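I hope you will forgive my troubling you with a question about protein structure. I am sending you one protein, given as its amino acid sequence and as whole-number tokens for its backbone shapes. Thank you for your consideration; the sequence and its tokens are set out here:
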Amino acid sequence: MPATTSVMRSEIDEQPQALRATLDALLPKSAEIAALAQQTRQVLFIARGTSDNAAVYGSYLIQAHAGRLANLASPSIATAYGARIDLSGVLAVAISQSGKTEEIVETLQWAADCGAKTVGITNGADSPMTRIADVALVTQAGTELAVPATKTFTAQLAAQAVLALGLGAGLDAAELERVPDVVEDMLGRNEEAIDAVVERLAGVHGTVVSGRGMAFSTALEAALKLKEACYLHAMGLSYADLLHGPMAVVDADTPAILIAANSGPTLAGTVALAERVRANGAPAYAIGGGSALADACDLSVPVPDLPEWLAPFSLIVPAQIITEKLARRLGYDPDSPRGLNKVTQTS
């Protein structure tokens, strides 16, 4: 049986410190980012795994608030096909916890060779990625030992929030600077609500995790964590995609975890989805969404009020804790899931 505490839980609890240090280090780089903004029109994110989920947040944030088109790259276009694409006017943003993943480093170099300006977001200060990038945004999460990424994920969110500000997003940096205190205040709270969700999930083999807009990245990351550490068949889906067919998999044995900010343009749709899920005879569990989503679900884990653009920082924390607790509840070691390493090399 695994220990009653884990490195993963310790690293979840280290997130306020990691966020403070990251924001202190990166907010002064806004001028460097702004200089790149003058030379570019759109953003191309290069990432895999957890970093790719973080990039989904950056894509929504930049498109909604900085007025720039943002897309996720297909690294195989560079590494397998060797295609040459005119990337003049593109800001290529690579995200990698270590800064050493060969596929991501190679794709960033490819983007630079194709004419893009480059940014590297990594926790590896002296890594190949930082040597390639025009601007390196080095997060300050410290060493992360548990294989499932937690504090490096939220540090990557912070780096992308700084990136969006540098690219001209009309958002309040002071709100971003409040985030570490909000996350710190929520740690240790709502444990009973989290435990209730864990007990329900302990008896199922699969779940659907859904969110939209800014919360979509959280849904994808929550599903990935449940797969990595709990070996659950967890699907991360936009609620719009869920309604186009996959709703059929949601039933009494396959609950839905619905994730939403406490306010914002996607909340009403998430509430409607919860009502649809329950009408189909399936359980629905909420993370966030305020009282509106809580009233529409069987169980809910509340989160503090943050502006929608910052809500993913608070939404992911309960999902991380649920994952860690569920893994131990099932007799698994959340720190060292089977078949996984900290750095995954792909080609």
